[in-house]
Design a protein that fits this description.
Strand content: 35-45%
CATH class: Alpha Beta
CATH architecture: 3-Layer(aba) Sandwich
Number of helices: 6
Structural class: alpha/beta
Order of helices and strands: EHHEEEHEEEEHEHEEEH
Low-confidence stretches: none
Mean pLDDT: 94
Helix content: 25-40%
Length: 217
């Protein structure tokens, strides 16, 4: 598995991540969602650099131009609900992509123990397509791995690009171990070293879904 860290060298991405982490700026959900979208656009641009392309002749008003156009059928898949703004950012660049959605949540037995449950999947035929599977946070890695496995019910993808803005080292190690033999590239914004007792990333940014859409029960 190849891992790509897109926060080095520093770019405007680092400012967007800093704003998402800032507890003062977090009080504005609109700003938080917009930063998720903008980071999605940056990830899409970086991923586009390693897609395959084909030469195409384009008729202009004055002649014929040659351009190179992506020739992979993309499917953008996101984990609800925090993944929606990130999904929209990816889709704004990969605007001809198909779309898939996975609902995954933590069901807590107590403060420190939980299971991941997949409740809902909506996806097209995935056989031989390129999937971009996105979730803003990669904490333990369990939700991402289960979503990856669940999507296989709709076909075997040619390649999967897993996208997370903030990851824990524990989550990265888990994904690498569980999917090491799969056709996967892992794209990361930043990696934090620590998970707390509730498996939240530290320093992280908190609950991305709540910050984007409001607190849940």
């Amino acid at each position: 598995m190849e891992i790509k860290y897109i926060n080095q060298p520093p770019s405007i991405l680092n400012q967007f991540i800093a704003e998402m982490r800032d507890s003062n700026i977090q009080s504005d959900p609109l700003r938080f969602r917009r930063n998720l979208e903008r980071i999605g656009e940056i990830f899409a641009y970086e991923i586009s650099k390693i897609l395959t392309y084909e030469e195409k002749k384009i008729k202009t008003p004055l002649g014929i131009a040659t351009e190179f156009i992506p020739n992979e059928q993309l499917v953008i898949a996101s984990i609800l609900r925090a993944g929606i703004p990130l999904h929209n950012g990816l889709l704004s660049y990969f605007d001809r992509a198909e779309n898939a959605f996975v609902s995954a949540y933590r069901k807590y037995a107590d403060d420190g123990n939980f299971d991941i449950h997949i409740e809902y999947i909506s996806a097209p035929d995935l056989n031989n397509k390129t999937i971009v599977l996105a979730d803003p946070m990669l904490a333990t890695g369990s939700s991402m791995e289960l979503a990856y496995q669940a999507l296989k019910a709709n076909g075997q993808a040619a390649h999967v690009h897993i996208v997370s803005i903030i990851a824990s080292q524990t989550g990265v190690d888990y994904i690498v171990n569980m999917l090491k033999d799969e056709p996967v590239t892992l794209w990361l914004g930043v990696v934090d070293e620590e998970l707390n007792a509730k498996s939240y990333i530290v320093p992280g940014l908190g609950d991305a879904g709540d910050l984007a859409y409001g607190a849940k029960l």
